[in-house]
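Shipment paperwork, digital attachment
Item: protein structure file
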Amino acid sequence: MTARTCWTTSTPRRPLLAEEGTALDRCAVVGFCLGGSIAFQAAVARPFGAAITFYGDGIRTRSFGEPSPLEIAGRLQAPWLGLYGDQDPSIPVEDVEALRVATSAAPVPTEIIRYPEAGHGFHNDARPASHHPASARDAWSRTLTWVESHLPG
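Attachment content:
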């Protein structure tokens, strides 16, 4: 990634980035839990270079009055990577697989990775009960690869 490449966790930074001359296709949005759902919504709303969701707050869940990810998956404008734990009680595997089918209709690359032994918050090392180190390492590696492969050099 170059010095002009940016990572953001929220769309309010967009006006600042535009003022600095940074194009959205040079930015990646990454979110965890509720932030994962926001990253998905951002990828539907704007053509970021890449977007990554770590588990989100649900696939059939409407947040902040917005449609659920399942309802709008076909409208993704940014290459999107979803990372989910099969042991997450708030996001059933059936919902993850339904999202996989729905995102396949998007006009951008999409990929979903499931971690059979991980639950919600598997990347959060501040919560030992939910942290799953092997899944977290693999998910972060995939995140970096996704960003590097979709943001311009």
